[in-house]
Write a structure and sequence with these properties.
single chain; 558 residues; alpha/beta; Glucose Oxidase, domain 1; Enzyme I, Chain A, domain 2; TIM Barrel; 3 domains; 8-stranded mixed sheet; 8-stranded parallel beta barrel; 22 helices; 16 strands; 47% helix; 13% strand; binds phosphoenolpyruvate; binds magnesium ion; EC 2.7.3.9; Phosphoenolpyruvate-protein phosphotransferase
């Protein structure tokens, strides 16, 4: 570009750490709104047209999901259910009875439901785009025109869209789409989830993205969340270098997690069954940091037998000879109810008899589980650690660790998921062999926001300095007492936040195996001093948004 052109930058939320350079291709504009002219066909014919198009759309979406597989399949299945939703179908029929055409009735019924979701905010609000996509597809089917979708091109491009529908993201041609930029969507939107899973370089929620014209050259930097328009030669060259370095790193053999100065940060896997073990090992998991045993028994009506559990735990431990495997005792209640441990009549199950409290009220279930774990440990070569969920007092810590040792388990710790445990971490860790911080629940309880409720989903952000302050309390206690402090909530899967958590004293990080590569490469970019500086920076801010922004820009300058 010539010297007097101005480089401008747009910003949003980056997904992953990649960088790409390419030219923009815009997603076509949506279909025009169907006209509100009265039907000439009559209600019965219009209802039949609507019914047939809703069913055909559901079938097409489901078929695309089956072709795509993975989490795309679940996302598309959820969209197919939207097209089959009986309440929506009733609303469409009622609007047709009121004189609408099928096109207009579908458009209005979906729009009304969309407004409802948006008013709920957070996670539910982010589902609104899925609904718009289904609506467009049904209207296109009614009109006999092709459904809107990703543009075709012979050459690779940077796709710019308002927000991609799951159906589009799932079927993106990864050879052609260099990166994705959307004007809408947040870090928990389906586009973000799928981009993460498919390792598509993406920046979502970019204000001004729709002003990007076809053919504009851009750099899309997911690490900083920046989209640079018409870059200078230097900017382009440095982005191309970084992309090449990323490709080289991705094809390099996976090594253990470590910071740039060599400080080891073992990276472990969160698993819910032994079936995921081989994949976790292939992705470089150095062991298991959280085995959610309740996932094995979600449908069970009676407590599982010692023999059944011994078989399940043995299968898990056999996959990790010589490696650490942290198994959590049944965490029943709230988001993970087990009928043999929980009373469904509680009004506030997250604050009720859940986790260790429920086990203590049914001690034979806990004894059986620990007995089965000790038997599996004796039969295998893994280094088994056990921990209790939802521990809120020092006395509970004493109860669990004593019982575990009495039943033959050598390493017994607790999860720190409640602020009281974080605040008394020095006393908790004087008793327990280790602590593992569950940032999902710790955030829920610190911000007083039910993690299952879409309307308060925006509070569920572990970057919040109040949450980080509590993590720091546990890190400090662990360092003083020489006890390990792991992180096993979703926070550990956010690469930059993972660095902050290490700066706060976390000694291991555990996450879903898909996140291991990005976290490993981000850790390798920073020293322990830097991690501590980022942690101090995040702690000094007043909100999750400011903490994330401050650390993101500090990291961009390193
Ligand atoms: C890891 C955690 O446990 P779960 O998500 O299973 O409640 C947590 O709360 O962060
Ligand atoms: Mg939890």
């Amino acid at each position: 570009m010539s010297g007097d052109e101005v480089t401008s930058t747009l910003t949003g939320t980056g997904i992953g750490r990649g960088i790409a350079v390419g030219t923009v291709l815009r997603m076509p504009d949506p279909l025009p709104e169907p006209e509100a002219t009265p039907s000439t066909l009559g209600p019965d014919a219009e209802k039949e047209r609507a019914r047939a198009s809703l069913a055909a759309t559901a079938a097409v979406i489901r078929h695309r999901g089956e072709r795509a597989g993975g989490s795309a399949k679940d996302v598309l299945e959820a969209q197919a259910f939207m097209a089959e939703d009986p309440t929506l179908a009733d609303d469409v029929a009622a609007r047709i009875d009121g004189g609408s055409t099928a096109e207009r009735a579908v458009f209005d019924a979906f729009a009304a439901f969309r407004d409802l979701l948006v008013s709920m905010g957070g996670y539910m609000g982010e589902r609104a785009t899925d609904l718009d996509d289904v609506s467009q597809r049904v209207v296109a089917h009614l009109r006999g025109v092709p459904a809107p979708g990703v543009p075709e091109s012979d050459t690779p491009f940077v796709l710019v869209a308002r927000d991609l529908a799951p159906a589009d993201t799932a079927l993106l041609d990864l050879e052609k789409v260099l990166a994705l930029v959307t004007s809408e969507g947040g870090p928990t939107s389906h586009t973000a989830i799928l981009a993460r899973e498919k390792a598509i370089i993406a920046v979502v929620g970019v204000a001004g993205a729709l002003s990007l014209a076809d053919g504009t050259e851009v750099i899309v930097d997911a690490a900083t969340g920046r989209v640079t328009l018409s870059p200078s030669d230097d900017e382009r060259a440095s982005a191309v270098d970084r992309a090449a370095a990323d490709r080289a790193a991705a094809s390099a053999p996976v090594g253990p997690g470590a910071l740039a100065d060599g400080t080891a940060v073992p990276l472990l896997a969160n698993l819910g069954s032994s079936k995921g073990a081989a994949d976790a090992v292939a992705k470089g998991a150095e062991g298991v940091g959280l085995f959610r045993t309740e996932f094995l028994f979600l449908d069970a009506e009676t407590a599982p037998s010692v023999a059944d559990q011994t078989a399940q735990y043995t299968a898990l431990l056999e996959a990790f000879p010589g490696r650490k495997v942290v198994v959590r005792a049944l965490d029943a209640g709230a988001d993970k109810p087990l009928s043999f441990l929980n009373d469904s009549a509680e009004e506030n199950p997250a604050l009720g008899l859940r986790g260790l409290r429920a086990l203590r009220a049914n001690e034979s279930v806990l004894r059986d589980q620990l007995t089965a774990l000790a038997a599996a440990d004796a039969a295998t070569e893994a280094d088994l650690w056990v921990m209790a969920p939802m521990v809120s007092t020092v006395e509970e810590t004493r109860y669990f660790t004593q019982l575990a040792r009495e039943l033959g388990l050598k390493t017994a710790g607790v999860m720190v998921e409640v602020p009281s445990s974080a605040l008394l971490a020095d006393r908790i860790l004087a008793v327990a062999d280790f602590a593992s911080i569950g940032t999902n629940d710790l955030t829920q309880y610190t911000l007083a926001a039910d993690r299952l409720l879409g309307s308060v989903a925006s509070f569920q952000d572990p970057w919040h300095p109040a949450v980080l302050k509590l993590v720091g309390e546990v890190g400090r206690a662990g360092a003083e007492l020489g006890k390990p402090v792991g992180i096993c909530g979703e926070a550990a899967a956010d690469p930059l936040l993972a660095v902050v958590l290490v700066g706060l004293g976390a000694t291991t990080l555990s996450m879903s195996p898909a996140a291991l590569a990005d976290v490993r490469s981000e850790l390798a970019r920073h020293t322990l001093d830097e991690a501590r500086r980022f942690a101090a920076l995040a702690l000094s801010e007043s909100s999750a948004v400011e903490a994330r922004a401050a650390v993101t820009s500090a990291a961009a300058g390193t």
